[in-house]
Amino acid sequence: MIRMGLSLSALLGLFSCSDETLTGYGAAETQWVLQEIDGAEFEARAVLEFPEEGAITGQAPCNTFSGQQTVPYPWFKAENLAVTRKACPDLSAENMFFEALQAMTLAEVGADTLFLSNDAGRKMVFVAE
Protein backbone atom coordinates (compact mmCIF):
# COMPACT_ATOMS: atom_id res chain seq x y z
CA MET A 1 0.00 0.00 0.00
CA ILE A 2 2.80 2.42 0.83
CA ARG A 3 4.52 1.56 -2.45
CA MET A 4 1.38 2.39 -4.38
CA GLY A 5 1.09 5.74 -2.60
CA LEU A 6 4.68 6.63 -3.46
CA SER A 7 4.19 5.68 -7.10
CA LEU A 8 1.02 7.71 -7.31
CA SER A 9 2.78 10.69 -5.71
CA ALA A 10 5.64 10.43 -8.19
CA LEU A 11 3.21 10.22 -11.09
CA LEU A 12 1.23 13.23 -9.89
CA GLY A 13 4.49 15.15 -9.50
CA LEU A 14 5.27 14.56 -13.16
CA PHE A 15 1.89 15.85 -14.27
CA SER A 16 2.09 18.94 -12.08
CA CYS A 17 5.34 19.96 -13.84
CA SER A 18 3.74 20.08 -17.27
CA ASP A 19 3.55 23.40 -19.09
CA GLU A 20 0.06 24.86 -18.69
CA THR A 21 0.79 28.00 -20.73
CA LEU A 22 0.28 28.54 -24.47
CA THR A 23 3.70 26.95 -25.04
CA GLY A 24 2.40 23.63 -23.75
CA TYR A 25 -0.77 23.82 -25.87
CA GLY A 26 0.66 24.10 -29.36
CA ALA A 27 1.98 27.67 -29.62
CA ALA A 28 5.67 26.82 -29.16
CA GLU A 29 8.20 26.60 -31.99
CA THR A 30 6.01 28.72 -34.28
CA GLN A 31 6.18 32.29 -35.50
CA TRP A 32 2.65 33.71 -35.28
CA VAL A 33 2.11 36.53 -37.77
CA LEU A 34 -0.68 39.01 -37.00
CA GLN A 35 -3.38 39.13 -39.70
CA GLU A 36 -6.12 41.21 -38.12
CA ILE A 37 -7.19 43.20 -35.09
CA ASP A 38 -10.90 43.48 -34.30
CA GLY A 39 -11.87 42.28 -37.79
CA ALA A 40 -9.66 44.78 -39.65
CA GLU A 41 -6.65 43.63 -41.65
CA PHE A 42 -3.37 44.54 -39.97
CA GLU A 43 -1.26 46.02 -42.76
CA ALA A 44 2.08 46.17 -40.91
CA ARG A 45 4.08 43.09 -39.84
CA ALA A 46 3.97 41.88 -36.24
CA VAL A 47 5.12 38.46 -35.02
CA LEU A 48 4.59 36.63 -31.71
CA GLU A 49 6.62 33.69 -30.46
CA PHE A 50 6.43 31.56 -27.32
CA PRO A 51 10.02 30.21 -27.09
CA GLU A 52 9.71 28.53 -23.70
CA GLU A 53 7.29 28.11 -20.85
CA GLY A 54 6.12 31.49 -19.57
CA ALA A 55 7.96 33.54 -22.19
CA ILE A 56 6.68 35.72 -25.02
CA THR A 57 8.88 37.42 -27.62
CA GLY A 58 8.34 39.00 -30.97
CA GLN A 59 8.75 41.70 -33.54
CA ALA A 60 6.28 44.57 -33.57
CA PRO A 61 6.12 46.81 -36.65
CA CYS A 62 9.15 48.79 -35.42
CA ASN A 63 10.67 47.13 -32.35
CA THR A 64 11.45 43.76 -30.84
CA PHE A 65 9.95 42.83 -27.49
CA SER A 66 10.00 40.18 -24.80
CA GLY A 67 7.99 39.51 -21.71
CA GLN A 68 6.04 36.93 -19.77
CA GLN A 69 2.86 34.96 -20.43
CA THR A 70 2.47 32.76 -17.37
CA VAL A 71 -1.28 32.32 -16.90
CA PRO A 72 -2.67 28.84 -17.65
CA TYR A 73 -4.26 28.09 -21.01
CA PRO A 74 -6.81 29.20 -22.25
CA TRP A 75 -6.11 32.45 -20.37
CA PHE A 76 -3.70 35.00 -21.81
CA LYS A 77 -1.87 37.93 -20.29
CA ALA A 78 1.15 39.67 -21.82
CA GLU A 79 3.12 40.92 -18.81
CA ASN A 80 6.35 42.80 -18.14
CA LEU A 81 6.94 43.66 -21.77
CA ALA A 82 10.39 45.06 -22.55
CA VAL A 83 10.40 46.87 -25.90
CA THR A 84 13.31 48.36 -27.83
CA ARG A 85 12.92 52.07 -28.66
CA LYS A 86 13.50 52.50 -32.41
CA ALA A 87 11.44 55.04 -34.32
CA CYS A 88 9.94 54.11 -37.68
CA PRO A 89 7.06 55.12 -39.99
CA ASP A 90 4.83 52.37 -38.51
CA LEU A 91 4.75 53.65 -34.92
CA SER A 92 0.96 54.13 -35.01
CA ALA A 93 0.53 50.48 -36.10
CA GLU A 94 2.95 49.44 -33.36
CA ASN A 95 0.98 51.33 -30.72
CA MET A 96 -2.23 49.69 -31.97
CA PHE A 97 -0.56 46.26 -31.77
CA PHE A 98 0.71 46.67 -28.20
CA GLU A 99 -2.56 48.20 -26.97
CA ALA A 100 -4.52 45.27 -28.40
CA LEU A 101 -2.02 42.64 -27.21
CA GLN A 102 -2.18 43.89 -23.64
CA ALA A 103 -6.01 43.94 -23.72
CA MET A 104 -6.28 40.24 -24.63
CA THR A 105 -7.31 37.74 -21.92
CA LEU A 106 -8.14 34.49 -23.76
CA ALA A 107 -6.25 32.34 -26.27
CA GLU A 108 -7.20 29.56 -28.65
CA VAL A 109 -4.53 27.63 -30.58
CA GLY A 110 -5.34 25.71 -33.74
CA ALA A 111 -3.06 23.87 -36.13
CA ASP A 112 -2.10 27.05 -37.99
CA THR A 113 -4.11 29.82 -36.30
CA LEU A 114 -3.83 31.58 -32.96
CA PHE A 115 -6.78 33.63 -31.71
CA LEU A 116 -6.44 36.09 -28.84
CA SER A 117 -9.59 37.73 -27.49
CA ASN A 118 -11.23 39.32 -24.48
CA ASP A 119 -14.67 39.62 -22.89
CA ALA A 120 -15.21 43.04 -24.50
CA GLY A 121 -15.34 41.38 -27.95
CA ARG A 122 -11.87 42.38 -29.10
CA LYS A 123 -9.92 39.85 -31.15
CA MET A 124 -6.49 39.34 -32.71
CA VAL A 125 -5.92 36.68 -35.39
CA PHE A 126 -2.45 35.25 -36.06
CA VAL A 127 -1.38 32.60 -38.59
CA ALA A 128 1.60 30.28 -38.36
CA GLU A 129 4.48 31.18 -40.61
Describe, in plain words, how this protein is organized in 3D.
With 129 residues, this protein is an alpha+beta fold. Strands 1, 2, 3, 4, 5, 6, 7, 8 and 9 form a nine-stranded antiparallel β-sheet that branches. The protein has helices at 2-16, 91-103, and strands at 32-37, 40-41, 47-49, 55-59, 64-68, 79-83, 106-109, 113-117, 123-128.
CA(first)-CA(last) distance: 51 Å
Order of helices and strands: HEEEEEEHEEE
Beta fraction = 25-35%
What general outline do the C-alpha atoms trace?
Answer: globular
Mean pLDDT: 88
DSSP E strands, number: 9
Labels describing this entry:
alpha+beta; 32% strand; 129 residues; 9-stranded antiparallel β-sheet; 9 strands; 2 helices
Furnish the topology, listing elements before pairings:
Blueprint: H1 2-16, E1 32-37, E2 40-41, E3 47-49, E4 55-59, E5 64-68, E6 79-83, H2 91-103, E7 106-109, E8 113-117, E9 123-128
Antiparallel strand pairs: 1-2, 1-3, 1-9, 3-4, 4-5, 5-6, 7-8, 8-9
Concise synopsis of the structure shown:
This protein is an alpha+beta fold and 129 residues long.
